[in-house]
Amino acid sequence: MRGITFNGKHSYWDWGLMLTKPPKISSPEPKTHYVDIPGAHGAMDLTEALTGKVQFHNRKIELEFIDAMADREDWSAIYSDILSELHGQVAEISLDDDPQHYYKGRVTVGDPERINGKAVTLKMTAEVEPFKRTYEGTGVL
Question: 97-100 long-range contacts, Cβ below 8 Å, gap at least 24?
């Protein structure tokens, strides 16, 4: 895997950013609801009482990139473009090794860090919906 596509812009092909390691994608945590009944053993599980099925919290995606074109003079312009395109924005996020699916959520772009005075690393996180989506519109865990 080389990169990630955000709203049609590819991290490698558009900005020269290559993933340093596979994305860390948390599994969606179930939303549970227990009610303690006085005088009874345990608690009553009302997790599925309202909808008949388990609901889930959002997921978190953590991404770490390195500038594949190390020591570029135009890095500040590229970083500005990344910030204006992604930081604080809702994006469709598609992984190179799973191009039929995408996650949808709000992206946060971190501050760039220089390694050995040359290469730049950049971390991004995204708070995304619990289900990844297919481009045909169905959700899958």
Answer: 97/1, 98/132, 99/5, 100/134, 100/135
DSSP 69-122: S-S-TTHHHHHHHHHHHHTT-EEEEEETT-TTEEEEEEEEE---EEETTTEEEE
User: Residues 15-26: pLDDT tens digits?
Assistant: 999 999 999 999
Of 2, 111, 13, 17, the residue nearest 70 (C-alpha)? 17
**Contact indicator for 125, 61 with CB cutoff of 8 Å:** yes
pTM for this one? 0.86
